[in-house]
Amino acid sequence: MNLTLGSCLKGICSIAVWLSQSTETESRVFKSPKIILKLSNIAPTKTNLLRLRQELKFARLGHELLDQKRNILIIELLTLVDQAVDYDGRVEKALAEAYRTLEEAVLQMGKLKVANLAGAVNIEAAMKISQRRVMGVQLPVVETSFSEHPPYYSPLGTSFWIDSSVNEFKKALQEMGRLAELKVSIVRLAQEVRKTIRKVNVLERIAIPELDEAVSYIQNRLEENERDMFVLMKMVKTRLERKKEP
Questions:
Q1: Assigned CATH class of 5-244
Q2: Rounded CA Rg of the chain
Q3: What is the tens place of the pLDDT at every residue in 219-241?
């Protein structure tokens, strides 16, 4: 293989780690006017205070759940990266062994006879693709099966390298199916990790601080109004007492 999968997968792993350490620039990208609360437009009432407290509680709960989802997805992603690196080496070894056995058969029997025997081999390969879910992400599951219709040729006058070559190519095809499954799963998980990290950043750096600030603003305004009302009532009481005096 001209392009080793190991370097690509390590690059994906690095991207996932980099995304988990996103800077504030990414937060500014997702700063939507619908999320930002303008304190001047919020009426300092107890109704708004209760509503914003409930929204803040819900936002913190969502942040916690998304953070857990992010961690699980990253762990799954790194696990698949390790498996893909391993299968990359296994595919290379399987293909190298398959071609080696084919070359041995050609050396012993000749290219023309091997080509004739290869045309007689009647093996049907089928790949069944199903789905599995990891935190809501659909990942493929590839199952490779073979339907054989022997005998293909007479064992007389043929080399055992032919049978060995057939078995090695079947093994290589199975390994390639598994490798394709891992590569697609890695891409899908990496995309979902990126989306989840963006959502976590929006909640952590924008929504929750804005809601927290709004709750504090309303609390301070309500406390200030209560103090003003207390002072006003005390002044009214003092005036009424003075009027009652002879």
A1: mainly alpha
A2: 34
A3: 888 888 888 788 888 887 778 77
